[in-house]
Write a structure and sequence with these properties.
With about 150 residues, the chain is mainly α. It has six helices and two strands, in the order H-H-H-E-E-H-H-H. The chain has a domain of about 90 residues: Winged helix-like DNA-binding domain superfamily/Winged helix DNA-binding domain (Arc Repressor Mutant, subunit A). Strands 1-2 form a two-stranded antiparallel sheet. Strand 1 and strand 2 form a beta hairpin.
């Protein structure tokens, strides 16, 4: 049974993207630096960054002076984009995973309305918060961030 929880992969992807945003000086940031700042295994971050790279969210350069940086402006990334990339569907129930509900019981399901409203609420939140918003919030906090 799928739980309504975001996995470490999703949380770490968001932390990784936020780290790249917070430490952007125009150059590339080595994964080793991110791993150290975030206290996350370098190997695990390499797996996550490869997903982000294949999706075009980050650019990379190998060798001396190499590393990673964001491909697009901060405001173009939403929390929802990042989580869906790493988590897949954020639907609270399997019947809402696809665009068309193929459940045989959907026409007689009294609880479907609950799951649809919950799904709308989840999407409304994660799709309304951008990486730029998180950076601004971090600046207001003035502390090291933890997600």
């Amino acid at each position: 049974m799928k739980e309504l929880k975001i996995s470490t992969k999703g949380r770490y992807a968001l932390r990784l993207m936020l780290d790249l945003a917070m430490h952007d000086s125009g150059g590339y940031i080595p994964i080793k630096e991110i791993a150290k700042r975030q206290s996350i295994s370098e190997k695990y971050l390499e797996q996550i960054i490869s997903i982000l790279g294949r999706a075009g969210f980050v650019q990379s350069v190998r060798g001396a002076g190499g590393g990673y940086k964001l491909s697009h402006p901060l405001k173009s990334y939403t929390v929802g984009m990042i989580l869906r990339l790493t988590e897949g569907s954020l639907a609270p129930v399997a019947c809402l995973d696809n665009n068309v509900n193929t459940c045989d019981r959907s026409s007689q399901c009294a609880t479907l309305m609950v799951w649809e409203k919950l799904y709308e609420a989840i999407n409304g939140v994660v799709d309304s918060i951008t990486l730029e918003d998180l950076v601004e919030y971090e600046k207001q906090l003035g502390t090291d961030y933890v997600i």
